[in-house]
Specification:
mainly beta, 8-stranded mixed β-sheet, 0% helix, 8 strands, ATP Synthase, domain 1
Length: 80
């Protein structure tokens, strides 16, 4: 599954991952391979990215939007 984390200033992260956990405005949720299409707003919290080699990365987000479609995630954040 591919992910791009983007802010208005730059592309923060791009790569292939196993899973992504995000702070949705109605609660935290996780996205895995073959997830159903989804668009959700994000609240303040931590984004956890698990890369294909099981390396874990964490990003702090203020707010944003995530779109999941066909094993591609685009995460647009106001600030990271």
């Amino acid at each position: 599954m591919k992910i791009e984390i983007i802010t208005p200033d730059k592309k923060v992260y791009s790569g292939k991952v196993k899973s992504v956990q995000v702070p949705g405005t109605d609660g935290s949720f996780q996205v895995l391979k073959n997830h159903a299409p989804l668009i959700s707003t994000l609240g303040k919290g931590k984004i956890k990215v698990v890369e294909e080699d099981n390396n874990e990365l964490f990003f702090d987000v203020e707010q944003g939007v995530i779109e999941v479609k066909n094993n591609k995630l685009i995460l647009l954040a106001e600030k990271i």
